[in-house]
Amino acid sequence: MRVFGLASSWVYTSVYMYEVLGIPLYLVGIIYTVSGVIAASSQVYGGRLGDRFGYRRIILTTFFLGTFSYGSLFFVTSSGNFPVLVSSLFIIGQTLSSIQRPSSNALLALSSNKPLRSFSFLRVGANIGWGIGPAAGGFVIFFLGYPSIYAMGAIMSLVSGAFVLKLEDRRPEVIEKKSPKLSSLPIAFIIIGVSGMLLFMVQAQESVTLANYASSIRHLYTSELGFIYMANGLSVLAFQGIAYRISSRISLTTSFVIGSLIYSFGYFTMSFDTVLPAFLLSMAFISLGEDFAFPMGNVIVSKLYGDRNTGFYMGVYNAFLSFGRSMGPALGGFALGYLASPYEIWLMVTLPGFLSAVIFYSRFSGTFRKDSLSI
Fold first, then answer.
1. How many domains in the chain?
2. Which of 315, 52, 304, 43 is nearest to 176 (CA)?
3. How many CA atoms lie within 13 A of 99 on its CB side?
4. Distance CA 209, CA 371 (A)
5. What is the pLDDT of residues 2-56, one digit of tens each?
6. CA 29/CA 344 separation, integer angstroms
7. Gyration radius of the chain's alpha carbons
8. Model confidence pLDDT, tens digit, residues 346-356
9. pLDDT at 375 over 50
10. Quick check: is 176 in a domain?
11. Is the model's pTM score more than 0.85?
12. Which helix (H) or strand (E) holds 252?
């Protein structure tokens, strides 16, 4: 439910900034990049806070603060055009969401003895939110205007916090008084993080690049854009069972590499898309790749570091992902602003995903088998 509100604001805020506030696309990309960099840094500290004060407590605190952030955005966007204030509140909201993510992942990792299945189901739930949220947001914007998506986000954040109240907190077996230093992280862990970061540079294209490419270049309506994101959520749900069964029979390395290649290729095929059905087909490829690749990083980290300072390691890994998510919009904004050909645009923004697959396979080929997770 939290993702339901987050997805709408993440997707349509870039369109609102460009079409309503008149912010240039390259600057929209920079705003998203700044948001991502701050959010990435906050995840490391968010993980440490979860280890120290309890994961459930951190999740609850950020959810209720998020309600206030969404409410403020609703009030500001309803009152007039305030580019600086809207940008600042957007960054605050994304930071709060990032602070809670390591605690959510740590709590899930400690609550299950089958992390692949657990994180696969987490992706299903998140992508249902990512599918239904933008779709509902597109219709709500069409009938009620942009401020309505922030009211929807405030309600969803508040309801999510109410559900978290029913969760039982879990703690790792070992919580060191001082979290490990970032400079002492194993090189293999860093490569896992960098691979995830590159893949999430492609994932971030669903915000600035896809939203503005579809609406401004291919001239789709916001309601049609909502259908594209809905297709993502529904396709992830449809393919998850197949992807899980296959991933459980092959190595985690193979699953990540295959997923990364399919995912990046799916986004590249959008260069050929001019009408809604074509975008929906591309999104199906993207969703299939997502089901294979996205759960793998969290599964590996939970297996390797699930018995000590779980929040810290989840925080650092998620910081890598957030850095990728922050750099992606800047890359997309540059491509949209300075490249004329759709093929050039989508080739530029998907190259990091193909590079991610190459790096991960080169380092971990033959590693992370289903019967062994030693590096």
1. 1
2. 52
3. 23
4. 40
5. 666 666 677 788 888 988 898 888 888 888 888 878 877 887 778 778 877 888 8
6. 18
7. 19
8. 999 999 999 99
9. no
10. no
11. no
12. helix 252-268
